[in-house]
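In this section we walk through a basic example: taking a raw amino acid sequence and producing a predicted 3D structure, encoded as C-alpha cells. The instruction is simple. Fold the sequence below.
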Amino acid sequence: MSQFYKSAMSPRADSAAVSGSTGSAKNPKGPLKKIFMKEADASNFFRRRSRRGVKSRDEINAEQRQILAADERRREFHEEKRNEFENYAEEESDEQDERSRESTEQWREFHYDGMYPPQEYNRRSI
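The resulting C-alpha cell sequence is shown next.
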C-alpha cells in the first residue's frame, strides 16, 4: 500500500491505479477503463477550489436549486402564518360584530316605546 502512495505522489507517474486481480494496469478493459485517469486530471479532481475560483455550471445550478427550495419553504411558511392570522382576525372581527349587534339590539329593546317606527327618532323638529 505504501508503494502505491509513493508512486501516486511521484511527479514521474503518468497515472494512478490500484492493483486488482482482473486485467492488467497497463490495458484496462470495459468499466475498469473509467477508473484510471492521468496524474494531472487526478490532482485537479482532488484539489479544492479556491474561494475566488470559478464555480462550475453544475455547482452554480445546485446552489441555485438549494436557494430556490429554501425560498419556497420560507414562502410557504409565511403564507401559512398569514392565513392563520387572517383567519384569527376574521374570527375576532366576527365576534366583535356579534357583540356590538347584541348590545345594539338590547339598547333598542330597552328604549322601544311601543310605536313603530319609534317616535323618538321620528319626531319632526318644530
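Looking at the output, two observations stand out. The chain has four helices and two strands. Strands lie at 15-16, 37-38. In the next section we compare this with other chains.
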